[in-house]
Amino acid sequence: MIKNNLEKGYVPLEVNSWDKIPKEVLPENLDWRFHKGFNWLSWNKNQHIPEYCGSCWAQATTSALADRFIIKFGLSALHTPLGLSAQVIVNCNAGGNCQGGEPLDAYKYAYEQGVPHSSCEQYVAENLYKDTCDPIDLCRDCTWPPCGANQTTEECVNSGCTVREFTHHYASHYFPLNGTDKMKAEIYENGPIACGIQATPDFDNYHGDYIYGEKIDEPEINHSISILGWGTDDTGNEFWVGRNSWGNYWGNWGFFKLTMKQGFNLGVDTDCVAAIPSYDKPTP
Fold first, then answer.
1. Does domain 30-278 have CATH number 3.90.70.10?
2. Residues 72, 79: contact at Cβ < 8 Å?
3. What residue ranges do the domains of the chain occupy?
4. Active-site residue, from 44, 46, 244, 265
């Protein structure tokens, strides 16, 4: 589930990718899963285990930002996987929770605080059990003995668990964008982006590697995914390559193809966000 983005401010680049890259130089096909002999993506996730959680807005943004860290710092070439914690974004209510949220605010949190690695906080598909987000909710390690069957979540967290230091994955800039040309330029220049779509029952049942399209005159954004590239089929029809957060058994190992055709693309080109990765804390 995703709530519509609100005008809450953002930190744009001095020069946008689409202002310096002519669309004529963009390739006919680009897929960050198969680029220069490497897969530059972080691992796929499932937002609905161990139970249903409408955290797609946090999953799509952290996945795309992790991808961009891998791309910018050459981590794929070093065979170093990376994942960023969507659970921390939910824990700290950084734009929302399991009832939905605003992707741009997830990147605001990355700009201000930095996102921990996925190993810092296990994804549990639940909102935090308290109103404050403390250091123990960002990165922890726990020792023996395990929690007893009658202990509450809070008792478990405070029993045998200690706060750990972690690498902060920042967003030096974050901003909204829309439109096919801007999306292509940004993906080409910096890597995957997070976009909203209208997830319909037919889209929910997508399985395979075909190009999906569904006629909807006025799409209503209710889900967030990441777009990692594009392609052209044998008949010249363009499509987006996207990644969902519903597990590898959905779609084509968690990925899908979506037509670029207006009125059939689930509104994917109307509400996207992007962030620029940095290991240095941004200076406002």
1. yes
2. no
3. 30-278
4. 244
